Amino acid sequence: MMPMLDLENISHSYNEERAILSNVSLKIMAGEFISILGPSGSGKSTLLRIISGLEKQTSGKVKLNNNIVSDDNYHSPPEKRNLGLVVQDKSLFPHLNVLRNVTFGIRGQKDRDNIGKDLLKLFKVDQHEKKFPNELSGGEQQRVALARSLAPKPNILLLDEPFSALDDDLKEELYLETKKIIQDKKMTVLMVTHDKNEADIFSDKIIFLENGRIK
Amino acid sequence: MPLVAVLSSLFGEYSDNWNHLYNFVLFDYLRNSAVLVFGVSVLTLIIGTGTAWLVSNFNFFGKRFFEWALILPLSIPPYILAYTFTGLFDSYGTLNNLVRNIFELEQSYIFFPNIRNIFGAIIVFSFTLYPYIYLVARSAFLNQSRSTLESGRILGLNRFEISFKLAMPMIRPAIIGGLMLVIMETLSDFGAVEHFAIPTFTTGIFRTWYGMGDLLTAMQLSSFLLILVAIFLLIENKSRRNAGFVSDSSTHSPIQIERLNSRYSALAFVFCSIPLLVGFILPTSELMIWAIYYNPSFFDDRFLDAALNTITLAVVAAVLCSMTALLINFSVRINKNKILRLLSSFLSIGYALPGLILAVGIVQTTTFIDSNLLNKSSLALTGSLFGLVLAYIIKSYALSNNTISSGMEKISIGIDNSARVLKSSGWNLLGSIHFPLLKTSFFTSILLVISEVVKELPATLILRPFNFDTLAVSTYIYAAEERMRDAAAPSIAIILVGLIPIIIITRMIRSSRDKGAM
């Protein structure tokens, strides 16, 4: 079985003195939920940026669905990789209402509004579809961000500390709901977090990253 | 290209006209420019820093009003103030007539001295340009940390020593930046010095070109002025970099505002009233009186034609300039394009270019394109609106660039990342994310450019197509024919448009102060 994501010897540095990532290799199979656990500055977020194409690694190879999307000679931009990404600060588009935010990534489908509304219902924010991001609470914004990332049916969902800005009660509630939705949709997910509890709840496998190396 | 065209003239032949200029008038140009720059610098420093110090550090009667009203003279271009002052202070102008009538003096009695000289020009420039210093000084005073100043008190300085030994030196780089802008504007001006018949570089360039028909010598003169302006631009840039030490947001606590007693309050009121009165209230009142009482055909055909031409040109230039700034900034942000970043910085220097030099360079460039690249038998670009719009874009790009780049900085990079992962890139990213988020910045940029274009005189005068008048050109022509009252209508229209950036600046200051108070 081919891995959905295959990282081969990824290294990255901004200058010669300090490497952010050193020879990171990783395979994720379809439907797997893998968490990368590590302290701040360990290179977790950089790894997600490299996988999403927002940054190009200094060396190594990134394969998605057995296709090379980035190596020494080629780099596919993020918009060509069909990935979902949710980050800590949500980055919702402030000028678009909730429904337009969720349907933003859906292209060429006549029923994009229905897809969006279904996802909003799934994440229990369908009553806010006409509201703008600034009218929502932090938890609601994160639900919208999750719904938006799933809307274009990405090959892999990348989560960068998606729950860290939420309070504990809200986290617990969203953990359960998100886990159920991800399992139902059989999503392949790579999450980076510094919270061991969070990694334990979600993950099929946990990988530790420290000083840019997998332990 | 226009810049290169001008500077390349230095390496060309020097004609007899140059020898004449060098032997007889160049020294006058230099001396007059130096006297103007010195006089304007001293007066604007006193007015700009003094008023900023008062409204930033003290509570006194009228302070809230002066905070924004002191910027108003910025809406009046120096050439309009020069025309108005001529009408006000001439031997038989409004104010001398008023004094004679009030005190029942003889018609030959002249109370106010002749203003059409270099000292009059110093007054005109100082009272229209001091807001450049007022704005930067006020912002620097407001950004000073209370704890820093309190440390001075603890170390034994009294209230005035704090101001003059600590506060003023701390804001010096910001003030120097503002002063350099004042100097560049003074050196670049054409309309006011021409009206007062003061030989300076700009009037010399104009006369050499139009009077002697010698474009090459005019370009050589322009090159010297350009080098002078470049020196002041370098100082301005350096002072802007140094201005960073004035504010430290991490440790910032606002300065303590002191209430003045009634005597000092009255003095502060008078000190702040003078620049407002001379730089705005007097000239606008005079213009209104002219417009209402002497010129009933305010909206005559000539005025309407000029207004329509001005608005059309200004809107076209503003939209093109803002779009250029938007595209360059977007491309720099997304593609990290170093060449475009460099181009943007280079284009931003255009605001410092005197309109006259820009016009000389553009004429040279369009003539070159017409005669070498396009139809050699006719002038397609030279004398067309193309050159004029190009001049406006080069002159105003810095305004658009500053407005749009600061708007863009407020858009989190996470928004871009999310959009790109959601398959939005290029034009789609610009159209669906950046432009909607930058709408306010984009329209602010359009308004700022419009107000700049409406005021621009020398470039318009030279580059406009034959028989194509704008409001600035109409004002100039009426004033040149000593028909000051006819100049009232276009002047008022220019001032009204010039108020737009002042309203924007005032709103920006208010909103930043409100945010600071939160």
What would you say this structure looks like, in words?
The complex is a heterodimer of chains A (215) and B (518). Chain A has 215 residues and is of the alpha/beta class. Chain A is 29% helix and 27% strand. Chain A folds into 2 domains: 1-82 and 155-215, Rossmann fold (3-Layer(aba) Sandwich); 93-152, no CATH class. Chain A is built from 6 helices and 10 strands. A 6-stranded mixed sheet of chain A has the order 6-7-8-3-9-10, sandwiched between helices. Chain A has a 4-stranded antiparallel sheet with strand order 2-1-4-5, covered by helices on one side. In chain A, a hairpin with a 2-residue loop joins strand 4 and strand 5. Chain B has 2 domains: 1-294, Orthogonal Bundle (MetI-like fold); 297-518, MetI-like fold, CATH 1.10.3720. In chain B, strands 1-2 form a two-stranded parallel sheet. Mean pLDDT of chain B is 82; it is low at 244-251. Classes of the chains: A alpha/beta (215), B mainly alpha (518).
Q: What fraction strand of chain A?
A: 25-35%
Radius of gyration of chain A: 17 Å
Major sheet summary line of chain B? 2 strands, parallel
Which regions of chain B are unreliable across 5 or more consecutive residues at pLDDT < 50? Answer: 244-251
CATH fold group of the largest domain in chain A? Rossmann fold
- Given the C-alpha coordinates, what overall shape of chain B results? globular
| Average pLDDT taken over every residue of chain B | 82
Element order of chain B: H for helix, E for strand: HHEHHHHHHHHHEHHHHHHHHHHH
- Based on the coordinates given, report the CATH architecture of the largest domain in chain B: Orthogonal Bundle
DSSP summary, beta strand count of chain B: 2
| CATH topology value of the largest domain in chain B | MetI-like fold
Q: What is the alpha-carbon Rg of chain B in Å?
A: 24 Å
β-strand amount of chain B: under 5%
Q: What pattern of helices and strands is seen along the backbone of chain A?
A: EEEHEEEHHHEHEHEE
Number of domains of chain B: 2
- What is the CATH first-level class name of the largest domain in chain B? Mainly Alpha
Largest interface: A-B, 29 and 16 residues
Classification by helices and strands of chain B: mainly alpha
Strand order of the largest sheet of chain B: 1-2
Strand order, main sheet of chain A: write it out: 6-7-8-3-9-10
